[in-house]
Amino acid sequence: MNEPVFKSSLSLEQIDSNFENMDFFGELMDGLTEALAYSKGQAKADTFTRKRSLPSVDVAAVRSSLNMTQKAFASVLGVSPRTVEAWEAGRTEPTPTAKKLIYLIEQDNSLVQKLIEA
Q: Domain 54-118 is in which class?
């Protein structure tokens, strides 16, 4: 059987920087604490949420780098302009899916054109 080959458009430095602010030990300890509470009957399995590492995004900076209005950026993302405004003002956070999409757009601006044409 062949070894899996993983390809990325990111350099090794970019990949490393994506993991800079991750606290692997802390996340592991949180999971173990939750598992212990469950095993002792102090928590229900349905109370746990899957914790994901999400990229950090600056919505206003990404939008500005694209020279887009909030309305145009919202249209590309499939959200309302008020949602983009709330993200930029810090009143709300983008959903995990929106964060990932904004991150991908930040890494490859050509995705905006593909989303406009979709």
A: mainly alpha
